[in-house]
Design brief:
Blueprint: E1 13-16, E2 19-27, E3 36-41, E4 52-53, E5 56-57, E6 67-70, E7 79-80, H1 81-89, E8 97-99, E9 104-107, E10 110-113, H2 124-129, E11 133-135, E12 141-143, H3 149-153, E13 159-161, H4 170-177, E14 185-187, E15 211-213, H5 221-227, E16 236-238, E17 259-261, E18 284-286, E19 314-316, H6 325-331, E20 339-341, H7 354-364, E21 370-371, E22 374-375, H8 378-391, H9 393-398, H10 412-417, H11 421-428, H12 433-437, E23 448-454, E24 464-469, H13 474-485, E25 493-497, E26 505-507, E27 525-529
Parallel strand pairs: 7-12, 11-13, 13-14, 14-15, 15-16, 16-17, 17-18, 18-19, 19-20, 20-21, 23-27
Antiparallel strand pairs: 1-2, 2-3, 3-6, 4-5, 8-9, 9-10, 21-22, 23-24, 25-26, 25-27
Organism: Furnarius figulus
Main location: cytoplasm
Family: Belongs to the TBCE family.
Length: 530
Amino acid sequence: MSAWVPPDALGRRVSCDTHCGTVRYVGSVARTAGIWLGVEWDDPQRGKHDGSYEGTQYFKCRHPKGGSFIRPNKANFGVDFLTAVKDRYGLNDKQDVHYGTENTLVFGTKTVEFVGMDSVAEQQRQQLNKLVDISVRECAVSHAGETEEISRTCANMRHINLSKNLISSWETVIAIASQIRNLETLNVSENKMKFSSTSSSISGAFSNLKILALNQTEITWTEVLLCAQEWPALEELYLSSNNITVLERPDNVLQTLKLLDLSDNQLLDGNQLHLIAHLPRLEQLILRNTGISSIHFPDAGFGCKTKMFPSLKRLAINDNKISQWSSINELDKLPSLRSLQCNNNPFMDTEKNPETMIQLIIAKISQLEVLNNCEILPAERRGAELDYRKIFGNDWLKAGGHWNPEKNKPSEEFLAAHPRYQSLCLKYGAPEEGELKGRQPLTLKNQLLTLTIKCPEKPEQKPVEKKLPESMTIQKVKGLLYRLLKIPGSELKLSYESSKLEGKEVELDNDLKPLQFYSIESGDCVLVRW
């Protein structure tokens, strides 16, 4: 006897053993009896062919070996939402229900949070109606079930994880969400769904939705904008790994958005960002591994702020192809930027010393407070800016810079490469001639000093021995100690004791002076206080 096949089987998501796929064909296959399902598998390793059998093409696959035929009785077409909830939380007649602590009930082995516990005797429907935060991840949910059944039994849910199920279309998500009036968080990631390609009537299903995850759903940006008409209060949108390459300007949608995650989508180029640059409330933008190679805000000149991304505070551009420092210069144009993640980009390979690399980024972006998840302390910023002013001082002079403000006219080329240099000179004063002449590269010929680092007021902090170049400035020593000792606070006070003059302590009070200025020798002890 042949297994039953749903009338809408074509295009449905199914599972077989541990594999998931999409039904691309329903019908007979030459030289065989009965009905077959042609399935395109998510994992091509599960398949055998491209949808053809003995010279006949029954369906098409993206991968040449991504498809195979299975009998209908081998395919799991999934269950309705409510059945999955009951199974996941043990809400059926066979399992015992008893009360936990305060606002929880225990169903079998599951403890579930409830809103209020007014009566002692809760019926199953009342129990379901108290659920607030549920997860039916990997529960083979494929459809909403009977009309209004969800709204009658568990309409108070606010946070739902529907990821990695067998949902075939966005319409199914709407059918479920429309019955949950206070839905705030929804995760439907890892469901390969069909989305509407035309604007449809507003259902009101997502009127209170604040957080939505659509990772790995194969949604396009055009489809995002069509669906977004139903998300009037959305604040966080996660769209990673969707093969989104081209963006469009969001007109009258996504205006409440505070966080947008586009990671692992290979965008056509950095100019795509201009199309989403005027989202008024966007505070966090995640662009990890999006293939961008440059960032540019053409509406603002050197030292000016862009009108793009007016509220953006946190930006992640790590794991990309940014090779030029000019893109880092551009980030100083963002008026609200406070936090940046930029690891694993080619421009970071241009500087061998990671300490110097960090200092350059800090100096180039004036308002940055957090870099690669590390707080930038005020003393670290001051040191970075002083060093930057000194490192590029000779270039500034060659380009037309001058200590006399009336003669200070650096070239456009220099200003393009160092947009903040002029403002740093105003902040700290132009670098003195003696500073620039005394600057030496840190090469092997510089003598290394073997020093003991101690924290006299923190006896639990063990002394550390370090080898430092004698030409290293006090500010760079402080920067090293911040990372080495993980010392909190914004001010460090350094001094040293000579191994030859016991009991005498000399204060290291000038951040711009090298260690050799203070006649420090190998064997001396640097004392750290804060």
